[in-house]
């Protein structure tokens, strides 16, 4: 059984996820933990549940999703895995982190790269990598068909979509990617986004004002 634990970190209220199964093997996705207390909260959950983290994954590399990459890399010895098109996005974070109030940001370079169709294996679990560009050029989501779970990053939100006015973003690309990639998943797939509460694919198909059947924007 796949378990999903959500943490909300940093002033951007970013959702970090730990996924683990009955083997206690885990992956950490988008660790936005910057403050020491946030890092301790994440580590305490891992320790208290006897988990063994084996993969460090980013859906994309905007600052709020990568602040804890170095901490996870240093603490658990995990290589950062991203889509290659987001490597420039990751590299840029160090140039503006202080301006956003994160002077202690320490960069963590990607060592492994993810492509559409790749499989993320841990324990008895396998996630599918789906490339959904538009919010960021190398944005991916992680899909677990058996539990109908999708870790969606900043693509699709409850009643909204990811912003596209940052470097590398493109509004039409995101709309097309959501409709062709995410909306091809079953309606009862639960999407865990990078910010805010989880939602269902079917609900967003019917009600999302940007990409739903009665889209207003």
TrEMBL record:
Q: Which SMART domains match?
A: Lactamase_B
Keyword annotations for this protein, in alphabetical order, are:
Hydrolase, Metal-binding, Zinc
Provide any one GO MF term from the record.
Answer: metal ion binding
- What Pfam families would the database entry show? Lactamase_B (PF00753)
Q: Where is the Metallo-beta-lactamase domain?
A: 13-195
Q: Which cofactor does it need?
A: Zn(2+)
> SUPFAM superfamilies attached here?
Metallo-hydrolase/oxidoreductase
- Tell me the domain of life: Bacteria
* The protein's name in its UniProt record: MBL fold metallo-hydrolase
